[in-house]
Amino acid sequence: MNRIVAGYSLSRCVKTFAVCLTATFSLAACAQSGSSAPTASGGNDADAGPPVINPAFGARMPRKCNAVKHVPNEAEAAALSQCAMENGGEAGAVVPMIYLWQNLQIQMGGSRPYAYNADSYSTGIDTTSPVYPIRATGDQLSCTGSATCMTRHADKAEGTCYKTTFGDWQCHFSQVFGVTSSAVQLPAPKTY
């Protein structure tokens, strides 16, 4: 019996579901076995799951990332930058605040060799691996426990993505320019 549901046959729906389910279990098996499949352009291996909301702040907690063992793409570089640059929200902090980055747009440049004068500040950098310059725009947020956060737009942030001596890639900003002088109160973010 081949029942028609909203223009699709039930057997077609079951076959499509089976293919999707098989692909999902195959990817999960790769992740559990420790092998890494290539990431499609725009994929994000750094993503460690959905945002965790801090009820005291009404905002998401600083982003946490999975280890990235390959040169990151731009989506991964944005996530890794958030993981490196965001902080706060700990219970019992002297100044209860969460510092976040939202709406990050990252552009990665071509690789270059390690340069002591430019890269020695990078903790644990593998000096034999290439370094990738990054530039970004985005919003810096300071959340203090209300339903809104003080938000300043940064026209230009510069930094690097680099491989550590443990084989993980990290990205962060070393300079932020063009930050709007006046902050705007915007709703506390719940997403990345």
The percentage of residues in β strands lies in 25-35%
Helix percent band? 10-25%
The assembly state of the depicted protein chains is single chain
Structural classification: alpha+beta
Label the overall shape.
Answer: globular
Q: How many distinct beta strands?
A: 10
Main sheet record: 6 strands, antiparallel
Instruction: Report Rg.
Output: 21 Å
- Overall number of structural domains: 2
Low-pLDDT residue spans: 1-41
Number of helices: 3
List the helices and strands and how they pair.
Layout: E1 4-5, E2 8-9, H1 10-33, E3 53-54, E4 59-60, H2 74-85, E5 87-88, E6 98-108, H3 116-119, E7 132-143, E8 148-163, E9 169-179, E10 184-187
Antiparallel strand pairs: 1-2, 3-4, 5-6, 6-7, 7-8, 8-9, 8-10
Quick overview:
This protein has helices at 10-33, 74-85, 116-119; strands at residues 4-5, 8-9, 53-54, 59-60, 87-88, 98-108, 132-143, 148-163, 169-179, 184-187. With 192 residues, the protein is an alpha+beta fold.
General description of the model:
- With 192 residues, the chain is α+β, with helices and mostly antiparallel strands.
- It folds into two domains: 1-37, no CATH class; 40-187, no CATH class.
- Helices cover 21% and strands 33% of the residues.
- It has helices at 10-33, 74-85, 116-119, and strands at residues 4-5, 8-9, 53-54, 59-60, 87-88, 98-108, 132-143, 148-163, 169-179, 184-187.
- Strands 5, 6, 7, 8, 9 and 10 form a six-stranded antiparallel sheet that branches. A two-stranded antiparallel ribbon has the order 1-2. The protein has a two-stranded antiparallel sheet with strand order 3-4.
- The radius of gyration is 21 Å and the shape is globular.
- Mean pLDDT is 79; it is low at 1-41.
